[in-house]
Amino acid sequence: MRRLPPLNALRSFESAARLGSFNKAADELFVTPSAVSHQIKSLEAFLGLKLFQREKRQVQITVAGEKYLVAVSHALDELDAATRRLISAPNTSSLTFEAPPAFLSRWLMPRIKDFQALYPDVELRLSTGAVNRIDFDHTDLDMAVYFGDPPDDDDIEVHLVHRSVVVPVCSPRKMEEHQIETLADLKKQTLIHVTSRRNEWQRLLLKAGISMTGEEKGLSFSSTQLALGAALEGLGVALSDKALITRELQYGQLVVPVDIELLTGRAFYLVYPKDRQLTYGMRMFREWLLEVMELTEDAF
Known about the structure:
This protein is α/β, with parallel strands linked by helices and 300 residues long. The chain folds into 3 domains: 7-88, Winged helix-like DNA-binding domain superfamily/Winged helix DNA-binding domain (Arc Repressor Mutant, subunit A); 94-163 and 266-299, 3-Layer(aba) Sandwich (D-Maltodextrin-Binding Protein, domain 2); 165-264, Periplasmic binding protein-like II (D-Maltodextrin-Binding Protein, domain 2), CATH 3.40.190.10. It is 43% helix and 22% strand. An 8-stranded mixed sheet has the order 4-3-5-10-6-9-7-8, with helices on both faces. Strands 1-2 form a two-stranded antiparallel ribbon. Helix 1 crosses helix 2 and helix 1 crosses helix 4 (63-88). The protein starts with 6 loop residues before the first helix and ends with a helix.
């Protein structure tokens, strides 16, 4: 049998210790400061230890309190995450999924109809997230696509989805008007960069033995979405993963003016917690995603 203090006492202690004030804790918990003080006194009595030093109108956490705060905060975070998952995903046919904006809108969205046709009983809850940062502990996420280097976390299950290979792309009108046929022609154009990947143009040109001088015309954008939008408008030449522009290439909205590509060294990964029991929806989505992406790779 576990010997645990009351939950309200733990919540009062964690809030007061984190905020450094009984009054601020009371505001956060929607109770009175005296109620917070009473809960903490009961917790101290339960533990037989002083968690705070009380001096006039100020409180100072003790060494024992600091140590206890670490464990209590972790336990409350775990309880909060478990509750979120249970409430937000009450059935095994739903899936809460997050991916970088470009992957979600350019690769996944055009194919959602195919998944729904195969698995009409699976409810997808999709959202965009940070490109290379996933938080399963404090969200109700089931799965996510992560972009970057392989996640270095023993608690995360990782499946390689797609290795990033970029090619130069521009509008057909841009290619014709500026007669872009060689890498030398390419270098004279306005080169469109994504801020977090500014070295890709340099690496691509170096692969062909061409060095950048720093005098090249350029435009920088914060995301792949914006960079490709600029290329579609004829503002310059961007670098993009072919997997993200299949529709634009198919319909002739974008073209690859010069036949060269760069394996960036980064990739898209499907990730989810190892300790998470896979639901029906999670299993079906994982199998579908990996199979469809493999077919996409073969098409290239």
